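Board notes (copied after class):
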Amino acid sequence: MPEPAPVKGETIVRLHTAALNHRDVYITKGLYANIKFPCVLGSDGAGEWEGKRVVIYPALDWGDNPHFQGKQFRVLGMPEDGTFAEMIRVPSSHIFPAPAHLTWEQSAALPLAGLTAWRTLFSRCQLKKGEKVLISGVGGGVALMALQLALAAQAEVFVTSGATSKIERASKMGAKGGANYREEGWDKKLKQDAGGFDVIVDAAAGDGFSAFPALCNPGGRIGIYGGSLGKINGLSMQPVFWKQISILGSTMGTLDEFGNMLKFVEKHGIVPIVDSVFPLSMGNDAFEKMDKGEQFGKIVLSIRP
């Protein structure tokens, strides 16, 4: 690919590290809308600009309304070239100082996952200190960031996963407990252990989502930022309206939310979980690992030694 040339209002960042998201894998399988080739994938990136360590806001053209993205909104890394490269051209307003306590690898692991988790927890679900939170599918980048952000906000956090080992690792990070959603009665176990939840964060949807309203406390909020398991069957509306539950969709976030997330991460010394690091030349191996779904944390590409 040719080196990107600077244009007015945009700047060139020399990337040191980038991180994978499931979106990148879905694009390679043709499972994403409006795919256009050729394109450099990658939404997460950390690099150098004018001698400073920076991270990149992982989207373009949110729009004027902070409540929802505009029609021109798109995620970085298709159709525009993304971060799986040595250099990238982005709007000058989209680069932010990297948190000083993070390594290059940790910095690249933060942007998309941190922004998505931040908006879901705080902008959409209005999480407050002392509330009980359930985070589904812990082990993925956004779910782990949601765990870390919620703990820093002094919430009481529980998790679900299809792997008991991931629940155990989340518990070592501060989660109060969890349940394996592959086991029968997982929802009843959570109800017994926690009593009920004020906030539930989910990325999968599917039939398991139907158990969430019964797990909510009155006034509970369910934030959902993905739908990898498809349509929801068996969802009863009775607990939704009777307990005044809100189901809140969330996608990425604004530039202001990105800046606020970075300040919160720096203030509380939050360190994103990095599962593994691959050189850019072994990017295909990184994609294969993500496709297996066995990672705990972000898979990162090292671009510069």
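Comment from the instructor: The first strand starts at residue 10 and ends at 19. The mean pLDDT is 96.
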